[in-house]
Amino acid sequence: MADEKREGGLSAPTRHPLNQHDPKFRDTADLNQELARVYDICHGCRRCVSLCNAFPVLFDLVDESPTMEVDGVAVADYQKVVDQCYLCDLCYMTKCPYVPPHEWNVDFPHLMLRAKIVNYENGNTKFRDRIITSTDLIGKVATLPVVNAAVNAANKNESLRGLLDKTMEIHKDARLPEYKRPTLRDTLQTTLNNADTATAASADDRVILFTTCYCNYNEPDLGDSLYKVLRHNGVSVEIMTREHCCGMPKLELGDLKSVDQLLQKNIPQLYEKVQQGWKIIAAVPSCVLMFKQELPLLYPDDERVQAVAKAFFDPFEYLQKLHKEGRFNTAFVNSLGSVSYHVACHQRVQNIGPKTRQILELIPGTSVKTIERCSGHDGTYGVKKESLVFANKIVQPVVKQIKQHGADYYGSDCPVAGRHIEHNLRDTENSQEHVHPLDLLCRAYGI
Prior knowledge:
CATH architecture of the largest domain: 3-Layer(aba) Sandwich
Low-confidence stretches: 198-203
Oligomer: single chain
Largest sheet: 4 strands, parallel
Number of domains: 4
Strand order of the largest sheet: 2-1-3-4
CATH class of the largest domain: Alpha Beta
Order of helices and strands: HHHHHHHHHHEHHEHHEHHEHEHHEHHEHH
Helix content: 40-55%
Radius of gyration: 22 Å
Strand content: 5-15%
């Protein structure tokens, strides 16, 4: 009997294109029928109950229905499950035994994405969500002179946060990121203008640093650490003349029009660099995943998108590549001791393996304990008034393991996840700060 016919396939997951141009894609009746089919399979399995709040909401709806089956759940309540999914992708990549090539063809995250797209295009998305997913626009405004200081002060003002809670439903207790001046791109451009213009001999050693909205506006030091690590390993680094949001926040909102607009701005110039032999690296896993997986599944016939995807690397994936080729700099001057390392969801589902841990463990006198649980933040889920409580609940197993490990450092590949973990850890009277693995690597190098 073929593997895909068995109860719970053992084959590697196969991702199908989203197929958003199919006439049935936006048909509400067809969507609800597919939701019911997948919900019924999930109800009979329940392996993913601990991953996020989407599954507990689904199972509660079923268990509290008259029939205790999916047919007893009101169709109008299907959206309650969709609203709790922030597309971490863990159910698809780590838990579900019914993903394709299994004949049941379950792709829960992309079904949730389909529902979000239909919901958005039907005009059922909050104004707040349209605003907070415009990360590039917010960053540009929030880093303007004068405005920058006002925004950062407002984010720390209890009265103004209370007003924001009431008017925009941004939870008053949510940790909002600080906006930094100068931005990462400004700093890097100055550095590059003053640097030796000689490029590495091999095309494999030439990298475009995609700075990302978050690193550019909120944590420029992280992007600077990535730049320093690459240069310390003899890699030539450049940034694009212009850069725009990767589109992941808009994709999670269901706004495909904005995703397409951002693609048209980013892909042509990135593709040109790829054709010249450059690789591309970003420090935020969600941005990497957007270019490596989501855009190729949205545009499977666009050769430019596919080429950029093949050239895009997670930072530690690229460093491990250098190590395998015998070209990674292992001249470390400091040990790190023990490290509690949180594996970010959007890095974990890239199927690249534990590259961050492998690189950190090359540092003498360093041991790494991994934590493979979602932080629950997602960038926007962890700031909304209606979902912060769940984000804080989801992160608790991570906080618990960090406290149990009692390591010298803890960190996550996702800087947003790291700050969310830090915020919740401090609620337990632990003042230890999150340190990103790239910053840890800089400490080990002494740079």
